[in-house]
Design a protein that fits this description.
Helix content is about 30%, strand content about 20%. With about 325 residues, the protein is of the alpha/beta class. Helix 8 crosses helix 9. The longest helix is centred in the middle third of the chain and has 16 residues.
């Protein structure tokens, strides 16, 4: 049985690694067609939360649903999501075009549709001239572009992005922000984790700040800054610094290694999935053989990148 109310919902979501509590009773609701800005310092539990929501890690306690499906139903969740981890899951031996073709075939995108989508996205991100070069010769920014296109190819209903503008020049970063805005205008949902607060201020409908596994504040960027104006200033940075001020340590504080990650290997759809029951901390020792984003069948209609007039697509 699925739930159809929210794009993302969690109830008392908890993840422990031994005595460390990475996520502590998280209650979260993300509406369809919105950008949720997920903030927190290193070690807050953001990566663990994203891995649970993308079905890479099982929670210790609590429940979570993505696009109405429980995260325990990995096939259903994977069919609805796209995921760009902090380190894009790409093969150095392939060219950029081959990487995207490979991933598109894993998604069962028809060949003609796949070719059109790849060409359109390569043009959008100024990668067409380098598409037939091996990824091992790509810069960090070029690899990031391939990873983002890969997450978008199958048009997921819910998109998880971890530092999507990392390594990008200002022009490419602007393209990413424009694409995110267009996606949400078309009804897609974006769960965005980044340390660049100006990006969150521009794009996010709702911001949640995680600290030591707890959701310490939540609201629109305007609401959060208004709440703190009298005592902490008027910017989202002021809010972030205020609500993540150091608290007394407890025996259940999370590992200092949280949020240093290398998440996904794009060949997982051939059967090499991570073990979601593993008791190792994914933030400090990520499983390289996992990618929750494969397996969705795609239609061949409207192959261009998203625009504000793609109402026929949904």
């Amino acid at each position: 049985m699925t739930r159809e109310t929210y794009a993302i919902e969690t109830r008392a979501l908890t993840k422990r690694f031994g005595s460390d509590v990475a996520v502590d009773g998280l209650d979260l609701v993300v509406e369809y067609g919105t950008v949720y800005g997920f903030l927190g310092p290193n070690g807050a539990g953001k990566t663990t939360t994203m891995r649970i929501l993308t079905s890479l890690t099982r929670p210790t306690d609590g429940d979570a649903w993505v696009d109405g499906a429980p995260v325990s139903d990995r096939d259903a969740v994977r069919a609805s999501i796209g995921y760009l981890p902090e380190e894009p899951p790409v093969f150095d031996e392939l060219t950029g075009r081959e990487q995207l073709e490979y991933f598109g075939r894993l998604r069962d995108i028809p060949s003609d549709a796949l070719d059109r989508r790849i060409s359109a996205w390569l043009d959008r991100f100024d990668l067409a001239d380098d598409a037939d070069k091996r990824i091992e010769d790509y810069s960090k920014g070029m690899r990031q572009k391939v990873g983002l296109i890969q997450a978008l190819l199958h048009r997921p209903d819910v998109l998880f992005l971890d530092e999507p503008t990392s390594g990008l020049d200002p022009r490419a970063a602007r393209t990413v922000l424009d694409v995110i805005a267009e996606l949400t205008d078309d009804g897609h949902t974006v769960f965005l984790s980044t340390h660049i607060l100006s990006v969150v201020e521009e794009l996010a409908d709702v911001v949640g700040v995680l600290y030591e596994g707890d959701l310490v504040t939540e609201g629109s960027p305007a609401d959060l800054t208004a709440r703190m104006e009298a005592e902490a200033g008027t910017t989202l940075e002021d809010v972030f610094l205020a609500v993540t001020a150091e608290r007394p340590s407890t025996s259940s504080s999370p590992s200092p290694d949280h949020d240093s990650e290398s998440d996904s290997n794009p060949d997982s759809d051939s059967g090499h999935d991570s073990n979601p029951d593993s008791d190792s901390n994914p933030d400090s020792d990520s499983d390289p053989n996992s990618d929750p984003t494969g397996g969705q069948t795609s239609s061949a209609d409207d192959e261009s990148p998203p625009s504000h007039t793609r109402d026929d697509e949904r």
